[in-house]
Structure formats: structure tokens, C-alpha cells
Automatic annotation (TrEMBL):
It is found in: Golgi apparatus, Golgi stack membrane. It is a single-pass type II membrane protein. One of its GO terms (molecular function) is glucuronosyl-N-acetylgalactosaminyl-proteoglycan 4-beta-N-acetylgalactosaminyltransferase activity. It is an enzyme of class 2 (transferase). Its main location: Golgi. Belongs to the chondroitin N-acetylgalactosaminyltransferase family. It comes from Erpornis zantholeuca. Keywords: Glycoprotein, Golgi apparatus, Membrane, Signal-anchor, Transferase, Transmembrane, Transmembrane helix. One of its GO terms (cellular component) is Golgi cisterna membrane. The lineage of its organism: Eukaryota, Metazoa, Chordata, Craniata, Vertebrata. This is Hexosyltransferase. Its EC number is 2.4.1.-.
């Protein structure tokens, strides 16, 4: 009201930003400032809302569970408080047990616990009982309109029995809201309140405590915001409640049983949904009216109204292709096959879209016509990243009139499943300070490339003092292993390592020697894993990899212990003899389109924690028992894919570039691994245009 009249209300301040100049005393020694982990901590930001639900022995497994299944996931943080000792916690609930079932003691301990654990983290604290139904979205909207600079005690105001007529307390059954500033001021007086104030009801006790020591009474209206409540009568039918007071209520009380809680949630969800649909219609009407006044006129209205227009490609390479489907089959399959059976989420998606299309047609043409589906003739869909999933359906429909006449007709309908609100997936905290342990397996065929690998490692990690170590894995063929006393095939590499250790006195590069005919990635990793601590972050490299700090930091950030492993897709340069054909090669700045491609067939590079590998490897060992020959048909990617519950993050990595080389594919590996290696070699030769040009020049040379 004060703002409407253009004057500030009581307790309001005119906040103006001011610049605090930085000053450092030159006479004092410089001390490095320790920065906080998150920016919001350093700036003093708080989370918005904390919710506490008071429950009891009789209602913990009934009403409290109903609260948890209906509104708990709508609040950012919700805890349950009880006086039970060693209570059995229902699944999915966070319970704090104080060990004393006296109501006043439970309230006292709850306020103490909230202050101690969450007082410095949240701006608002909402206290409710488990026999209360609260509209979570309405409560969250309420706190966004209240100033955090005031002491707030907001709820359904009730008079004390035989007390002061002016003083009010907030009824606990309808929930109440406390501000952080009030909680901080109240905490020093809680012990005095416990000893001096006698009351049977915990909400009356808390209200009296706030009034006596802070002089603040409960209000039902503050800063133009109303705390609406509704008291349920016995044998209430929520579905038949049409009163405006009921529909506007933030909290409903008392809820006698679980079924009533679910029915209330269903009814309020329906009310909220109707409001949203009405708001969408109003916004669409406003968009239409405003678009008519723009230079484009009514032609500028996109469909659906309010959704982004379809993506307009600037070249043929940017065209988003449509995937064809029927009710039984999909003609664009993940494995590359031309036709596959429609199943799982895709089948559910198609069924829902067809059902929605028929429903929309009936909504538009009833009561004159009634449509029913006969058959899906053709279906097309594509994902447009600017707006969502688009569909085109050719439906064979039977249209029935009010007089009973029917007619079969084909109709094309277009639908859009728009992208909804973007959610940030919570991820565990990681840091770029983690030490990376590089593991480099080497065979005799790799000797020509080791010198370049070690030079790049020294230049990009040792010279820059990056927190990275290197372990070499020498893989001897049994024949070479027998002659190692006379001729060591890796003697040159060991000499290079010795030179590096002389140049960098603080660096040690250990190596491990292994004798095998089939260098299985899993067997080699088993040996390395046992020689390192469980918290080691491994980067499994290949000899053609050019190590740099940019990639190592992404390895650290994309690999999360007990959560995620990272398999980068390196960039493979094409064969320069085919790409340039005697011309001067490109500059050091790689032209990704012309000079190479991302090799999706290679899984040689991987970032993972030793603890995660050991866990997955233990499950694998229990599955295969003593059949070690199975390990020869697997790689590290297969181990994590089939024997861990971790996220497998597979992404292109522009910082991981490999020079062209023709890799030797070991025919003793499994058929799949060998086939992958051959495909990697073939696709790494050159692009199709370069191969076509090479064939053209060869045919011309042959014809002359």
C-alpha cells in the first residue's frame, strides 16, 4: 500500500550499491586470500526456503509418508522431526529424532536444530504438521514476494485463551513462516522460554515466546501478501469444493488420513493446471494482439503461439532430417540399421502423440464430428534444439456425425512437444587440483612414436609444473621377453626416460614390464591398479596422444569418483599423403573439417578413478568366475558399461589431437575389438571428397 502511494513504508530502506575500494597496507606482509568453494558463499547468498514437518509415532508411517509423496519433492529442502527414539525411517525420507515425545520439548529441540544446522543457509523457514496439506508452489511464490530484511512471523493468527486481545500466535495446523532474522534473534531466548512459559500446545508456546522476548505477534497479511488457509470439515469431498477460499488456500487442515491427503493433492494439482492453461491462453492472445502491430504483421505469429520458430538452416549441412516411423517400426535406428522394432520409450512416445492428436481433433470439432483412429499411415519426427520435438502424422480416421453417419478420411496433423523448463542436474563438486596418473601401454610397434609423446609430455606438463605423473607399461612379446638379457627392445625408451629424470630432478617415471601375446586392456589395467592407491585418477593414454594442460583439466572436471567416468573421443588427423597430395600441409591450427575427424570407434583413452575400476572389476570377476579368456574380448569401456552403475560420459575432445598413423590391429583380440580397429584405420584415411579425388587422379593416370 505504501509503495502504491509513492512513499516508503516502515522498516523499508532505500538500498544503493556502493563500491568498497581495495586497500592493502604496504607495511604488512602479503597474505594469500583463501577463496571459498562457491561464489554464493563468498557473496553471502542464502538458499530460499527450508521446510520442517513435525510428525509423531502414530502418523510417521501414514500422514508423513503421504506428505513425502505429494509435496516434499516440490520444496528445495524438507526434513521431518519426531520425538521418537531410534525410529525406523520410511524410504526416501530424512528424519531427525530428538528422543522425547513431549510436544513442547519437540518444538524446542526442532527450533534449536534448525538454527544450528540451517540458520546460516536459508532465508525462510516454514514449519508445518504432517496433518497439513500445503500448496508447495504457492508457499514458494509467497516467500519470493516478501522482504528478507524484516522479522516475519506469518500464518493463521489465533487468539490466546484468556490472554491479551492484541497478541496473536500462528496456528501450527495451518503452518507458519519464520524469517531468518527472527530465528537468529529468537535463538538466545529459547532456553528461557522452555523454563518460564507453560503451555500444552507447541504452537502457543512458540507464539508466546516470540511475543514475550521479541515483541512480534503473528500476522496473516504482510507486505501486501495474504496467508490464505482453509479448515476442512468432517467428511469433506475435495473434488466438490468449489469455494474461492478453498482454491486460494496455501494450507489446508486438518487432514485425517492418507487417502484424503492424496485426494487434496489431486484436486489442487488440477486447480493449478487449469490456472496454468488459462495463463497460457491469455499470453497467447496477448502475443497475437502485439504481433499484429509489428512490421511482420500477423504473418509473424509462430506456431504454436509462444514457442520459438523452427530452426532455419543456412546451408544444406544444417538441415535437420526427419525420422520416419510407423506404429510398429522405426526407420532410423541407433545402431545404424535401416529398420528396427519400435519399443520402450520410443513406442510410448508414438502412442502418446497419436492419442493426443485424436484428442485435439475431437476437442476442436465436437459435437459436430467425432473422430476415432483407424491407422497411422505415416509418421515423421525430428528434434529441433531451438524448440523441441516436432511430429507430422498422416492419420486414417473415421469421422462420425451427430446423426450417426460415418466417413473414413485421411488427415495430416502437426504437433510439437516443446522443451520445458531447463533443470540443472546436481553434480558432486570436483576440482582442477587433482593429480592425474597417466598410464601409457607400449608395444614394439609403438617405438617410433614414443619420443614425440615424451617430448609433448615434458613440454606441456613437466615444464608447466602440472600435477600429473606418468607410468609406462612395457608389453613384451614372449619371444622378446626371453631375449631381454641380450637385446631389450625397450632399451631406447628406458634411455629416454633416464634423460628426462636427469633433466627434471624431482620427477620419477616408473615403468612396469608385462609379458603377453594378447595385450588385453583389462588385464593390463589390473596390474596397474594394484600398484596405485584407490583414490588415484587414471588417464589411460595411447602413444599417439599429444598431452596438454587443457585436456588434463577436462579429464579432472569430467571424472567424478563414484559418479562418472570420462571416455573422450579424440580428433584423428587424416593421412597427409591423401589430403594434401604433395601440397604444403596446413598450419598448426587444425582445420577440423578438412584435416581430420573425431574417431568414434576408438575407446583407447579413458579417465576414471581407481576405486571405481576396482568396484566394477570385482563385479566382473564374480560374473565370469575363472574364465579369464573372456577378458580378451573386453575393454575398459565394456567393464564400466556392464558392471558399474556410474555415468559414462562420452564426448568429443578437441584438445586431444592425434597425428595420422596406420595402427596395427591384433587379430587375436575379439572380433568386435578387431573390427573397431579396422574401421578406425579406414575412416581415418581421409574424407570422402579426398578419397574421391585420389581415385579420380589414379583413374586419369591409368587411362593415360
Amino acid at each position: 500500500p505504501e509503495a502504491a502511494e509513492g512513499r516508503p513504508g516502515p522498516g523499508h530502506e532505500d538500498f544503493r550499491p556502493r563500491i568498497v575500494p581495495y586497500y592493502r597496507d604496504p607495511n604488512k606482509p602479503y597474505k594469500k586470500v583463501l577463496r571459498t568453494r562457491y561464489i554464493q558463499t563468498e557473496l553471502g547468498f542464502h538458499e530460499r526456503l527450508f521446510v520442517a514437518v513435525l510428525t509423531s509415532k502414530a502418523t510417521l508411517n501414514t500422514l508423513a509418508v503421504a506428505v513425502n509423496k505429494t509435496v516434499a519433492h516440490h520444496f528445495p529442502r524438507l526434513l521431518y522431526f519426531t520425538g521418537l527414539r531410534s525410529a525406523k525411517v520410511p524410504h526416501g525420507m530424512v528424519l531427525v529424532a530428538h528422543g522425547d515425545e513431549r510436544p513442547i520439548w519437540l518444538m524446542y529441540e526442532t527450533m534449536n536444530y534448525i538454527h544450528q544446522h540451517f540458520g546460516s543457509d536459508y532465508d525462510w523457514f516454514y514449519i508445518m504438521q504432517d496433518d497439513t496439506y500445503a500448496q508447495a508452489e504457492q508457499v514458494k511464490a509467497l516467500v519470493t514476494h516478501l522482504s528478507i530484511n524484516q522479522d516475519v512471523y506469518l500464518g493463521r493468527a489465533e487468539e490466546f485463551i484468556g490472554g491479551d486481545e492484541q497478541a496473536r500466535y500462528c496456528h501450527g495446523g495451518f503452518g507458519y513462516l519464520l524469517s531468518r532474522s527472527l530465528l537468529l534473534k529468537l535463538h538466545p531466548h529459547l532456553d528461557s522460554c522452555r523454563n518460564e512459559i507453560l503451555s500444552v500446545r507447541p504452537d502457543e508456546w512458540l507464539g508466546r515466546c516470540i511475543i514475550d522476548f521479541l515483541g512480534i505477534t503473528c500476522v496473516s497479511q504482510l507486505q501486501g501478501q495474504h496467508y490464505h488457509t482453509y479448515e476442512l470439515a468432517k467428511n469433506t469431498e475435495p473434488e466438490k469444493e468449489e469455494e474461492e477460499e478453498f482454491q486460494a488456500a496455501l494450507a489446508v487442515h486438518p487432514v485425517s488420513d492418507m487417502t484424503l491427503m492424496y485426494r487434496l493433492h489431486k484436486q489442487f494439482s488440477r486447480i493449478q493446471l487449469d490456472r496454468v492453461y488459462q495463463e497460457i491462453q491469455d499470453l497467447q492472445m496477448q502475443i497475437r494482439n502485439l504481433t499484429a502491430l509489428t512490421p511482420a504483421g500477423e504473418a509473424g505469429v509462430t506456431w504454436p503461439v509462444g514457442i520459438n520458430a523452427p530452426f532455419l538452416p543456412k546451408s544444406r549441412f544444417e538441415v535437420i532430417s526427419w525420422d520416419y516411423f510407423t506404429e510398429q517400426h522405426l526407420f532410423s535406428c541407433p545402431d545404424g540399421s535401416p529398420k528396427c522394432e519400435l519399443s520402450g520409450a520410443s513406442k510410448a512416445d508414438v502412442s502418446e502423440i497419436i492419442e493426443s492428436a485424436v484428442e485435439q481433433l475431437n476437442r476442436r470439432y465436437q459435437p459436430l464430428l467425432r473422430f476415432s483412429k483407424r491407422q497411422l499411415l505415416n509418421g515423421y519426427r525430428r528434434f529441433d534444439p531451438t524448440r523441441g520435438m516436432e511430429y507430422m502424422l498422416d492419420l486414417l480416421l473415421e469421422a462420425a456425425t451427430q446423426k450417426g453417419h460415418s466417413h473414413v478420411l485421411a488427415k495430416r496433423v502437426s504437433l510439437v512437444r516443446p522443451l520445458s523448463k531447463v533443470e540443472i542436474i546436481p553434480m558432486p563438486y570436483v576440482t582442477e587440483a587433482t593429480r592425474v596418473q597417466l598410464v601409457l601401454p607400449l608395444t614394439v610397434q609403438d617405438l617410433d612414436f614414443v619420443a614425440n609423446f615424451l617430448d609433448m609430455f615434458a613440454m606441456n606438463t613437466l615444464d608447466t609444473h602440472d600435477n600429473a605423473l606418468l607410468t609406462l607399461l612395457f608389453i613384451y612379446h614372449p619371444y622378446d621377453a626371453q631375449r631381454v638379457g641380450q637385446v631389450d627392445v625397450f632399451a631406447g625408451v628406458k634411455a629416454m626416460v633416464g634423460e628426462l629424470e636427469k633433466r627434471y630432478a624431482e620427477v620419477k617415471i616408473p615403468w612396469i614390464s608385462v609379458k603377453t601375446e594378447v595385450p588385453s586392456q583389462v588385464k593390463l589395467m589390473d596390474i596397474v591398479s594394484k600398484k596405485h592407491p584407490v583414490d588415484t585418477l587414471f588417464f589411460l593414454a595411447s602413444v599417439w596422444t599429444e598431452i596438454n594442460m587443457e585436456f588434463l583439466n577436462r579429464c579432472r572436471m569430467n571424472t567424478i569418483s563414484n559418479w562418472q567416468v570420462f571416455f573422450p573421443v579424440h580428433f584423428q588427423e587424416f593421412n597427409p599423403a591423401l589430403v594434401y597430395r604433395g601440397e604444403q600441409t596446413a598450419s598448426s591450427n587444425t582445420d577440423f573439417v578438412r584435416d581430420g575427424h573425431f574417431d568414434r570407434h576408438s575407446f583407447a583413452e579413458a579417465c576414471f578413478y581407481n576405486s571405481d575400476y576396482m568396484t566394477a572389476r570385482t563385479k566382473l570377476a564374480a560374473d565370469i568366475l575363472d574364465r579369464d579368456e573372456v577378458l580378451e574380448s573386453m575393454d575398459i569401456f565394456d567393464v564400466f558399461l556392464h558392471y558399474s552403475g556410474l555415468h559414462l560420459f562420452r564426448a568429443v575432445e578437441p584438445g586431444l589431437v592425434q597425428k595420422y598413423t596406420l595402427r596395427s590391429c591384433n587379430p587375436r583380440l575379439s572380433e568386435e575389438l578387431y573390427h573397431r580397429c579396422v574401421l578406425s584405420n579406414l575412416e581415418g584415411l581421409a574424407s570422402r571428397s579426398h578419397l574421391a579425388m585420389a581415385l579420380f587422379e589414379q583413374e586419369q593416370a591409368n587411362s593415360t
